[in-house]
């Protein structure tokens, strides 16, 4: 279940009339909360209606500083389920605050073995293993 508008004109069916805390619903199969619904999310790209038609990329990032329309994705508490898929794309003007738009911070995660501390520990373990096999 997610925080969205499940039926026409009825926001209360999912037990929420507006945004809710991140853990108000169960996490998805990846143990992530509110990946769809609750608030739509700003995307870094400017909105161009034909971006996918005229781009060679499957993920075009249009950064037009003169275009105040910014892409939003993921659906919100006020949207019907169609907008809860990441493939749906809409826009809002960048200078207009809305109660149904937020943002998500993300970073690349390459695994614990690639952190500086883990690399040092892995290198030390390999050296110890080489030494022990030489004996």
TrEMBL record:
The family database entries (SUPFAM superfamilies) matched by this protein are listed as: C-type lectin-like
Instruction: Supply the Pfam families for this chain.
Output: FGE-sulfatase
Q: Which GO terms describe its molecular function?
A: formylglycine-generating oxidase activity
The record's listing under InterPro entries reads: CTDL_fold (IPR016187), Sulfatase_Mod_Factor_Kinase (IPR051043), SUMF_dom (IPR005532), SUMF_sf (IPR042095)
Could you identify this protein by its name?
Sulfatase-modifying factor enzyme-like domain-containing protein
Name its species: marine metagenome
Q: Show where the Sulfatase-modifying factor enzyme-like domain sits.
A: 15-106
């Amino acid at each position: 279940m997610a925080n969205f508008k499940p039926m026409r004109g009825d926001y209360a069916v999912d037990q929420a009339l507006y945004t809710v805390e991140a853990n108000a619903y169960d996490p998805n199969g990846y143990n992530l909360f509110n990946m769809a619904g609750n608030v739509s999310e700003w995307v870094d790209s400017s909105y161009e209606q034909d971006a996918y038609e005229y781009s060679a990329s499957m993920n075009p990032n249009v950064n037009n500083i003169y275009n105040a329309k910014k892409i939003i994705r993921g659906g919100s508490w006020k949207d019907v389920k169609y907008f809860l898929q990441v493939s749906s794309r809409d826009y809002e003007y960048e200078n207009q605050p809305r109660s149904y738009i937020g943002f998500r911070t993300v970073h690349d995660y390459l695994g614990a073995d690639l952190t500086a501390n883990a690399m040092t520990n892995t290198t030390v373990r390999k050296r110890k293993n080489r030494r022990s096999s030489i004996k």
